[in-house]
Amino acid sequence: MDEIKRIPVKLVLSDYIITFEYCTWKSQKRKEGKMKIKHYSGLEARDYFRKWVKKIRTMSNAKILDTVEIKETRQEVVL
Length: 79
Known about the structure:
With 79 residues, this protein is an alpha+beta fold. It contains one helix and three strands; from the N terminus they run E-E-H-E. It is elongated, with a radius of gyration of 18 Å. It has one helix spanning 42-55; strands at 10-24, 30-39, 59-78. A three-stranded antiparallel sheet has the order 2-1-3, covered by helices on one side. A hairpin with a 5-residue loop joins strand 1 (10-24) and strand 2 (30-39). Helix content is 18%, strand content 57%. It has a domain at 41-70.
């Protein structure tokens, strides 16, 4: 029997801090917040944040102001 060769897959995970502002349903005032997300790319972290905002009932009209990668917290995951 031949041996099956495995191709290693590496993922690099980083922490991203997303700065955003939103309106509340009752007071309609703009508030600013920050959220820390661990993901493998900045664009995917932004998409994850947008999906998360849709689940939160008290937030509306959320806008992403800035996305910053924290380079000290990089992790390599070998699958």
